[in-house]
Amino acid sequence: MNFTPMAATFAGTDLVGIAGERAVCDPRGVLYFPDFRLLAVSDLHLEKGSSLARRGALIPPYDTGATLLRLQAAIADYQPAIVVSLGDSFHDGGGAERMHRSFRERLEGLMAGREWFWIAGNHDPEAPADLPGETVRELAIGSLVFRHEPSRVRVEGEISGHLHPCARIVQRGRSVRRRCFAGDGGRMIMPAFGAYTGSLNVLDRAYAGLFRAETLMAYMLGAERIFAISRAMLRPG
Description:
The protein has 237 residues and is an alpha/beta fold. The chain has one domain (9-148, 155-233): Purple Acid Phosphatase, chain A, domain 2 (4-Layer Sandwich), CATH 3.60.21. 16% of the residues lie in helices and 30% in strands. It contains four helices and 17 strands.
């Protein structure tokens, strides 16, 4: 559904500030820092389909291929020197081992020639089996700190995932709910990138205390655009 939010700022590919660092919120759900040539992505949940299938769920196992194709396109556009995957890159600890060889080769091709950091998540706390890259609990670059779960004690410059943020607005009687980046200028929580991932409204109590209410913005993902929505326009649900 296309929409034109009232009283909202169209961000497009404009840079946003996070603790003094410049970042691009891309409508595909990746975050790019041009000064570091760094691309961040969160919650890929690769091999979620195969994980659910092992539990008897009748879900087509197409998520890994779809997720990697989208990631491949973003990497091709930005050509980053560094990629940071913010945890829950695989849906469980055995996901990397289950991944089909063709998907593994595609992923290794994306990793070739650049630094790649796997941030440990709650779904995948250990390094992915037989894949290159460095696995860390968190990563500090410039004034930024990359980690999976947002800290309850405020950390300026923190970039995290885990909560799968989305935002909802109501315009002319129509409700629009989209995944989003959630930030207040000092920290950012990224949307889940994986094809089979859900989302949680930024007004949910799970976000309580994480943002300054007066500067909270939800950067909603449109088909080709990012829409910056102020806290006053957001609705629960």
